[in-house]
Specification:
Blueprint: E1 12-14, E2 20-22, H1 34-42, E3 51-54, E4 62-65, H2 80-86, E5 91-93, H3 97-113
Parallel strand pairs: 3-5
Antiparallel strand pairs: 1-2, 3-4
């Protein structure tokens, strides 16, 4: 069903008063490597290397995998044992949730301050 107050050929919606309102935009941002990216940022020795944030023991799970680990098939939510099998040089880092919690508002601020 078509909205009579919306001109689909335009980036503006009519407010009913004759003045156009800017169209709302939806941005999809993938942050599934966020924890690993923070680890790369904070530890330059890890940059360019495959990193997994999570438990490295038998029952551990990868919370986040860096983009360097992805070509090996390592991804979030996979068992650590399987990740190690796929990428023997994978570096496991224990999660630092307090640090991620500090960085998260900085990311949100970028979105609220950027006009998309």
């Amino acid at each position: 069903m078509s909205d009579p107050e919306y001109d689909h050929s335009s980036a503006f919606r009519s407010s009913g008063s004759g003045e156009p309102e800017q169209q709302r935009r939806i941005v999809h941002v993938v942050l599934d490597a966020f924890y690993a990216s923070v680890e790369h940022r904070d530890n330059p020795e890890l940059r360019g290397k495959p990193v997994a944030v999570g438990g490295s023991r038998e029952r551990g799970v990868v919370a986040a995998a860096s983009y360097e680990a992805r070509p090996f098939g390592v991804h979030s939510a996979m068992p650590s044992v399987a990740a190690r099998r796929k990428c023997p040089e994978l570096i496991f880092v224990k999660p630092r949730f307090e640090d991620y919690r500090e960085v998260s508002p900085q990311i949100r601020e970028i979105f609220t301050s950027t006009r998309l």
